[in-house]
Design a protein that fits this description.
By secondary structure, the chain is α+β, with helices and mostly antiparallel strands. The protein contains 6 helices and 6 strands. Helix 2 crosses helix 3, helix 3 packs across helix 5 and helix 4 runs antiparallel to helix 5.
């Protein structure tokens, strides 16, 4: 087996870092031949194509080695979520990844699973409730209460996005678009 190189995958459209994988010479050659990203799995000790089971492949735009050729930047177009947990990126915020895990577990004790099962309308009402509580805290309560209420609003806004089938990366993209202008 040839030496492994870190391969940082970046969404060609948004610039978002999607994941880190490892490539040996064979994985790099297959990536260039097929136009789909291949990695070497250190745990399974074999070559694998990203998306071979999920269908969420990465279509290669370019592969650029770093200055001493021991790491690669892979610019790609993702066909679906990149992270095995269902998120756009393996570097998504921890809270989003936790929400996805709790939804997948769907146990009776999971507040997240119960809220998501209740649907969009309930989650929208909860966001409204939390927004009012934050506004009231900002006007009349301690900084600690403002932070607590902001955390509740943030959490419930993420639940609402999930209930609608939306990834928070779309919100980041919209904010980035607004910051750079049309």
């Amino acid at each position: 087996m040839s030496e492994l190189r870190a391969a940082i995958v970046q969404d060609e459209t948004t610039g978002r870092v999607l994941m880190l994988g490892w490539m040996d010479d064979e994985a790099l050659a297959r990536t260039r031949e097929t136009g789909e990203v291949h990695f070497f799995s250190r745990s399974r000790q074999r070559l694998w194509r990203k998306g071979e089971t999920s269908g969420n492949v990465l279509h290669v735009v370019e592969v650029v080695p770093d200055c001493d050729d021991d790491a690669l930047l892979v610019r790609a177009h993702p066909a679906g979520p990149t992270c095995h947990e269902g998120s756009t990126s393996c570097f998504s915020p921890w809270l989003w990844r936790r929400i996805l895990r709790r939804e997948a577990e769907a146990g009776e004790d999971s507040y997240v699973a119960r809220q998501l099962a209740a649907g969009v309308a309930l989650n929208a009402r909860k966001v409204g409730e939390e927004a009012v509580e934050l506004a009231v805290a900002a006007l009349a309560e301690s900084d600690e209460r403002v932070v607590e209420e902001a955390a509740d609003l943030y959490f419930h806004a993420l639940l609402l996005l999930r209930a609608r089938g939306l990834d928070p990366a779309l919100v980041e993209d919209e904010l980035r678009r607004r910051a750079t202008g049309p």
